[in-house]
Amino acid sequence: MLEQIRIVLVGTTHPGNIGSSARAMKVMGLEQLWLVAPEHFPDAAATALASGADDLLARARVVDTLEEAVADCRLVVGTSARLRSLPWPLQTPREVAQQVVANPPGGDVALVFGREASGLSNQEMHLCQAMVHVPTAQEYGSLNLAMAVQILCYEIRMAVLGGDGARQIPDSPPARAEDLERLFVHMQEILEKSGFLNPKSPRHLMARLRRLYLRAGLDEKEVNILRGILSAYETTPRKPWEESLDSNDGDA
Ligand code: SAH
C-alpha cells in the first residue's frame, strides 16, 4: 500500500520544503515523490534538508503539469489550508487514510500539495476527487508544506499498521497467572518479615499492591526481576511490632 502512495508537490517555491517532504515521506515508508514545476530543483537546500532521504530526491519525477503527475492514478486527493467554500466535502487526513487503506483503489493514489504562498489553483483542485484539510486552529490554519506532508504520511502509515504502530514487539511474554500469584505470596512474605505488613492487621495492603502490579501488565522477565529483588531482601528479617517498635499497620 505505502508504495502506491504518490506525494505530488505542485509549484514548490522553497527547495528546502522539497527536501523536508522527502524526509517526511521516507520515515513513514513512502517513496514516490513527484514534483510539478518546482521553482528550484535539484538544489543544495533540498538535498541538505532531505538528510538520509536524498535517494527519494534522486528518484523524484519532475513534470510540468499536475495532469501529467496524476494521469495514471486511480485516486487523486488534494490538500488545502483553507476552509473556503469548496465544491468538495473536506475530510481529515485520518478519514482519507482509513478509506484508502480499507478500500485500495487498485492502483496509485496521489496526495497533492499546493504552493507555499497560494496553495492549489481552482483548476488543479478540479483534478482532485477528494480534499483533505488538517483541522488546525481557526485563526491560523496554514501549515508548513513539509509538515502537512508529514501528517498525511503518518496517517497513511498508521492506517496501514492498523493503529498498532507504537506497540513494541515484546522481548518476553506476559507473565502467567500462577507466576503472578507466586510473586504476590512472596511479596507478602517479605513484607511481613520486614515488618512493613502486620499479619494481624493487614488492612488492604495486599489488595492494593495486587491492583498496582496487575495494572502494570507484567511480563515474565519483569516478574523474575521482582522475585529477585524480594529474595535479596530476605536476608534482613525484622518485625518491629514484635519488638514493640513503631509499627506500620499495613494500611496503604
Ligand atoms: N496560503 C496558502 C497556504 C498554502 S500552504 C493557502 O491558503 O492555500 C502550502 C500547502 O501545504 C497547501 O497547499 C497544502 O497542500 C498544505 N497545507 C498547509 N496547511 C494545511 C492544512 N491545514 N490542511 C491541509 N493541507 C495543508
Describe this structure in words.
The protein is an alpha/beta fold and 252 residues long. The protein has 2 domains: 2-162, Alpha/beta knot (3-Layer(aba) Sandwich), CATH 3.40.1280; 177-241, Helicase, Ruva Protein, domain 3, CATH 1.10.8.590. It is 41% helix and 12% strand. The chain is built from 10 helices and 7 strands. It has a 7-stranded parallel sheet. It binds S-adenosyl-L-homocysteine (SAH).
Descriptive labels:
seven-stranded parallel beta sheet; binds S-adenosyl-L-homocysteine; alpha/beta; Alpha/beta knot; 2 domains; 7 strands; 10 helices; Helicase, Ruva Protein, domain 3; single chain; 252 residues
Ligands in the structure?
S-adenosyl-L-homocysteine
CATH architecture of the largest domain: 3-Layer(aba) Sandwich
Shape: elongated
The helix-and-strand class reads alpha/beta
Oligomer: single chain
> CATH superfamily assignment of the largest domain?
SPOUT methyltransferase, trefoil knot domain
CATH class of the largest domain: Alpha Beta
Gap between N and C termini, in Å?
52 Å
Computed over alpha carbons, the radius of gyration is 29 Å
State the strand order across the main sheet. Answer: 3-2-1-6-4-7-5
Count all strands and give the number: 7
Q: Count of helices?
A: 10
List unreliable stretches of 5+ residues.
none
Whole-number average pLDDT?
90
Tell me the strand percentage band: 5-15%
Order of SSEs: EHEHHEHEEHEHEHHHH
Largest sheet: 7 strands, parallel
CATH topology description of the largest domain: Alpha/beta knot
Number of domains: 2
